């Protein structure tokens, strides 16, 4: 995907400040496809007109890897030229009248390994057009602010491609000669070309008719390969729930007669929100209790929701340009997170979902925000837009929306959304437009009063740090809280202005009871929890009538995406862990204690104390959590799970990945041994009975039982007893669902027991025909805790396994990414062999699929933090990749940024 067609010169950066409205509008598009894997013919007939608001200029159409055969203007031949990969037309009709432009091209779907544009997967045609894939199908103004009305005719061999789908409504279908047939689709909504889609192949559908609140009927369909129909029930249920939820919570109904989801096993990302024809990675559609875990079920619900919610936030109102990507992604992630929480139900289950989301943010987005690829939620420039589908755009973007939600309240936010649609339905807009609508609907709110400074969240990269310190005056019963903020420099942004940071807080006494809150100047106390808005570098608040020195519970529910630094004593953290009414902060207190112990051990002069990193009081507190009958299983599982190695690494200036791994493993072993009796009781108490259901409560019980089993195996392996490994193997064999079966297998693999090998073999033979389960089999082995460097040789061996193929992104991710991106203890080898493996795979993948290669390239983003010898060998590996002259723009951008000295 070189910008320069001849591969020469430097790729050019695109800047947000260079935005110009399009010089031409495309009102209608009629596309006719003659589908053939080797050579598909595309006739593109457009109705164009000049944009009267922009100075007259040539029409420049984007195209990529197309064979052009004919160009007609109003039915007659015309002159044109090529400028790089753009088709340039200079002699077009003057004046404001619309005219027809017809372009004939061909492309080769079966040679398309990038999976962008039109490609073939297992004999079926699929498209992927976001962000700039439509230009690989035909010449077009491939930018989201050009919205057109589409009519699409598909023609193909009827036996090989019985199902022909595109966006909108089916208006006509029938047979053609020579065994071919056709289908004609019309999309009643104008859309940008990145939302175009077609699918053609041998597929079957689960169908469901539904009635909306207003009484209109809709047809929902989930298309899969013939053998997979039995695995579509959960996706369909999730889709029905999504439709109902968006109508109930935001008053946003389904605006189409027909809504289709199609699954493919070759897909670069999770799923795509094409209008009325969502295309999904099979991973986020197919599920049965025998083949999918609780996590898979939850992810399917979230992704089905996410793509469906895009129908309004993304499709009805789209992005003006790709710098505004978070306008749709941040908002839609926020919406899917809220959907999952509402589906989970009770406050405790909501908190579990919130903790899970924050864990992702901290272990993936915080490192991104501190590394060479750091960028604002609304970036200022990029080389390859595909590199900016990031956790910052998605997850941090969702946090920005969540803060707005917090500042205006739930009803205020709903009003804001209403105004957003009233103003902008059918338009391509900016993040400013969204923030303005939310603020304007809530005059007088903290958001409206601070809108300009609030929007620094869109413009400034980096994770802000908030330092909190409290001072209690026992004589006056006053408690003064000081909050200070700062933000580290990020590439191109050495200095930051203060952010507007909502800090929700409560105060506890030392017995853990909530104290009434009364700020200086207030007549009476008012509630036990409230939100302070930090908008300067440093601010103070004084609470009065505080009877005793309080323990502050700060940033409840993680009310802002910041690093909060507080000088808690261990005793204060234990109080919060045992009593905080805010479930998030209860979990957080436990994590702070565990992190504190880990950091003490990592920075200790030697490893002689590694067997006793956790002290008696902390172990007791954790045992109490495990035994507490009031707490949900899912919550317990989160409390008892140690901070990830990546998250621990982020706390350190200089990172020795092996030391982090060793300390974390030692802590796990200590937890396993010290709480042995509790783990045993926990495991016994959480045996599910009755039919499998993937709801949050039963999933939580299975997760906790799984953690208990892992701990029992770990402890047994250390103590040399074989009772628990034996029981685990039995569990593995008898399990009634994939969650229990996989957890048992993972427990055996995790402790390195001899029973793991035969279990893995058996698992493979059971599921050898199910690609998604095979992905789990590869991922488990590549992600296993490293023992004496065993993982890399195993990964190399698995690369040669008959079931491995690097061409399928899911399979590549399951083996290569699980090792390079998700297994730091095994990847960061002192002999640099992990890095050599990484550089080879980046190059190998880049020749096939640059988008996937660039994601792998990011595994060494944080190399500058590494201690020697890792740092030097990582730099060498990156430099080896950089030295290749033929890199894609995708990988080139990532590698160049990694090597830049900022
Ligand atoms: N817009 C999609 C989503 O977030 C994701 C997406 C962007 C994508 N680019 C893609 C999916 C390329 C597949 C391939 O829902
Ligand atoms: Zn999305």
From TrEMBL:
Required cofactor(s): Zn(2+)
Gene3D superfamilies assigned to the protein according to its UniProt record, in alphabetical order: 2.60.40.1840, 3.30.2010.30, Neutral Protease Domain 2, Peptidase M1, alanyl aminopeptidase, C-terminal domain, tricorn interacting facor f3 domain
Enzyme Commission numbers on file: 3.4.11.2
Domain Aminopeptidase N-like N-terminal: 31-195
Domain Peptidase M1 alanyl aminopeptidase Ig-like fold: 462-566
Keyword Zinc attached: yes
CDD domains tied to this protein: M1_APN
GO MF term set: alanyl aminopeptidase activity
UniProt-listed SUPFAM superfamilies: Leukotriene A4 hydrolase N-terminal domain, Metalloproteases ('zincins'), catalytic domain
UniProt keyword annotations, A-Z: Aminopeptidase, Hydrolase, Metal-binding, Metalloprotease, Protease, Zinc
Ranges of residues in domain Peptidase M1 membrane alanine aminopeptidase: 235-442
Pfam families named among the record's database cross-references: DUF3458 (PF11940), DUF3458_C (PF17432), Peptidase_M1 (PF01433), Peptidase_M1_N (PF17900)
UniProt catalytic activity: Release of an N-terminal amino acid, Xaa-|-Yaa- from a peptide, amide or arylamide. Xaa is preferably Ala, but may be most amino acids including Pro (slow action). When a terminal hydrophobic residue is followed by a prolyl residue, the two may be released as an intact Xaa-Pro dipeptide
Residues in Peptidase M1 alanyl aminopeptidase C-terminal domain copies: 570-900
PANTHER family linked to this entry: PUROMYCIN-SENSITIVE AMINOPEPTIDASE
Similarity-based family: Belongs to the peptidase M1 family.
NCBIfam families the UniProt entry points to: pepN_proteo
Protein name: Aminopeptidase N
């Amino acid at each position: 995907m070189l910008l320069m067609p001849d591969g020469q010169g430097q790729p050019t950066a695109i800047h947000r400040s260079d935005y110009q409205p399009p010089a031409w509008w495309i009102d209608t598009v009629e596309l006719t496809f003659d589908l053939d894997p080797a050579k598909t013919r595309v006739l593109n007939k457009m109705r164009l007109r000049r944009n009267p608001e922009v100075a007259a200029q040539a029409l420049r159409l984007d195209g990529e890897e197309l064979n052009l055969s004919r160009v007609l203007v109003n039915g007659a031949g015309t002159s044109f030229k090529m400028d790089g990969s753009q088709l340039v037309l200079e002699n077009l009709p003057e004046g404001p009248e619309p005219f027809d432009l017809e372009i004939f091209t061909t492309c080769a779907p079966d040679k398309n390994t990038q999976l962008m544009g039109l490609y073939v997967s297992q004999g079926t045609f699929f498209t992927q057009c976001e962000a700039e894939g439509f230009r690989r199908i035909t010449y077009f103004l491939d930018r989201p602010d050009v919205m057109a009305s589409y009519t699409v005719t598909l023609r193909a061999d009827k036996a090989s491609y019985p199902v022909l789908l595109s966006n909108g409504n089916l208006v006509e279908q029938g047979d053609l000669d020579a065994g071919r047939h056709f289908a004609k689709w019309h999309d009643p909504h104008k859309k940008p070309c990145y939302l175009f889609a077609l699918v053609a192949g041998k597929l079957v559908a689960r169908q469901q008719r539904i009635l909306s609140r207003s009484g209109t009927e809709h047809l929902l369909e989930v298309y899969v390969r013939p053998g997979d129909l039995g695995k579509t029930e959960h996706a369909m249920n999730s889709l029905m729930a999504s439709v109902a939820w968006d109508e109930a919570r935001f008053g946003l109904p389904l605006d189409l007669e027909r809504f289709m989801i199609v699954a493919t096993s070759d897909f670069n990302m999770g799923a795509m929100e094409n209008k009325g024809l969502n295309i999904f990675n099979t991973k986020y559609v197919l599920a049965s209790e025998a083949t999918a875990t609780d996590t898979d079920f939850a992810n399917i619900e979230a992704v089905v929701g996410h793509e469906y919610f895009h129908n309004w936030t993304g499709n009805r109102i789209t992005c003006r340009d790709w710098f505004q990507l978070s306008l749709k992604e941040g908002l839609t992630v926020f919406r899917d997170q809220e959907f999952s929480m509402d589906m989970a139900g009770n406050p405790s289950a909501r908190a579990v979902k919130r903790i899970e989301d924050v864990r992702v943010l901290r272990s993936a987005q915080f490192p991104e925000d501190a590394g060479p690829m750091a960028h604002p939620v609304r970036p200022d420039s990029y080389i390859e837009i595909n590199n900016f589908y990031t956790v910052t755009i998605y997850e941090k973007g969702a946090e920005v929306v969540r803060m707005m939600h917090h500042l205006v309240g739930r009803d205020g936010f709903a009003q804001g959304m209403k105004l957003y649609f009233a103003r902008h339905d059918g338009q391509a807009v900016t993040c400013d437009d969204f923030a303005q609508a939310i603020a304007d609907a809530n005059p007088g709110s903290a958001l409206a009063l601070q809108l300009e400074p609030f929007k620094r969240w869109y413009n400034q990269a980096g994770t802000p740090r908030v330092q909190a310190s409290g001072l209690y005056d026992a004589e006056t019963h006053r408690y003064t809280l000081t909050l200070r903020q700062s933000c580290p420099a990020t590439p191109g942004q050495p200095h930051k202005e203060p952010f507007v940071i909502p800090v929700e807080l409560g105060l506890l006494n030392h017995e853990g009871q909530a104290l009434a809150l009364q700020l200086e100047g207030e007549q009476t106390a008012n509630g036990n929890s409230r939100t302070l808005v930090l908008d300067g570098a440093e601010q103070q608040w004084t609470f009065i009538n505080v009877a005793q020195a309080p323990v502050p519970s700060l940033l409840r529910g993680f009310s802002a995406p910041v690093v909060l630094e507080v000088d808690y004593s261990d005793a204060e953290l234990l109080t919060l862990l045992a009593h905080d009414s805010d479930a998030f902060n209860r979990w957080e207190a436990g994590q702070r204690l565990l992190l504190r112990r880990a950091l003490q051990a990592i920075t200790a002069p030697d490893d002689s104390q590694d067997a006793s990193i956790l002290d008696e009081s902390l172990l007791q507190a954790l045992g109490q959590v495990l035994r507490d009958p009031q707490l949900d299983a899912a919550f317990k599982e989160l409390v008892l799970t140690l901070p990830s190695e990546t998250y621990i690494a982020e706390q350190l200036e200089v990172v020795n990945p092996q030391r982090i791994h060793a300390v974390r493993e030692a802590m796990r072993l200590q937890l396993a041994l010290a709480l042995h009796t509790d783990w045993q009781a926990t495991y016994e108490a959480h045996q599910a009975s009755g039919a499998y259901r993937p709801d949050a409560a039963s999933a939580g019980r299975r997760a906790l039982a799984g953690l208990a089993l892992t701990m029992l195996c770990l402890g047994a392996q250390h103590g040399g007893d074989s009772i628990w490994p034996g029981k685990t193997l039995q569990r593995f064999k008898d399990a009634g669902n994939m969650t229990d079966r996989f957890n048992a297998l993972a427990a055996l693999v995790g402790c390195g027991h001899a029973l793991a090998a035969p279990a893995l073999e058996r698992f493979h033979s059971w599921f050898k025909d199910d690609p998604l389960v095979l992905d789990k089999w590869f991922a488990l082995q590549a992600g296993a805790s490293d023992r004496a460097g065993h993982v890399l040789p195993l990964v190399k061996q698995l690369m040669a396994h008959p079931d491995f193929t690097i061409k399928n992104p899911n399979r590549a991710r399951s083996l290569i990414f699980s090792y390079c991106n998700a297994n730091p203890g095994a990847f960061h080898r002192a002999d640099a062999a992990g890095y050599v493996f990484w550089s080879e795979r980046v190059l190998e993948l880049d020749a096939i699929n640059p988008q996937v290669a660039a994601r792998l390239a990011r595994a060494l983003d944080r190399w500058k933090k590494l201690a020697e010898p890792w740092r030097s060998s990582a730099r060498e590996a990156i430099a080896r990749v950089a030295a290749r002259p033929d890199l894609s723009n995708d990988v080139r951008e990532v590698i160049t940024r990694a090597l830049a000295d900022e």
